[in-house]
Amino acid sequence: MGSIVRVIWIILLLVFGALFFVKGIQLWKSIATIDGNGIGLTFLGFEVSDSVKFDEIRFYAGIFISGGIASFILAVSQCGRAYIAYYR
Question: How far apart are CA 2 and CA 74, in angstroms?
Fold first, then answer.
């Protein structure tokens, strides 16, 4: 039972990591096309901030990209543990 929970945890980490990473890349690419003072930022239907200033968009993009990379690293480390536990 523990290995099934671990596999579900790995899948969730990979999905959220991909979502965070893609959102960060979208924010990074949108820097050149923003006119006005800023944008409203949503993630998975939740409003993160209603007015992100133009200067702060890089900060938010970096945070999302870092969160995605951290989730991927956690998923890979859990894959190793699941593999070792399965073949033990």
Answer: 17
Task: Find out whether 43 and 87 touch, Cβ atoms under 8 Å.
Answer: no
Q: Phi then psi for 47, rounded to 5 degrees?
A: -80, 115
Specify the number of domains making up the chain. Answer: 1
**DSSP state, residue 37:** S
Structural domain range at position 10: 2-86
- pTM for this predicted structure: 0.79
Residue 74 has pLDDT above 80, yes or no: yes
44 φ/ψ angles, rounded to the nearest 5 degrees: 55, 35
Backbone angles phi, psi at 35, to 5 degrees: -115, 150
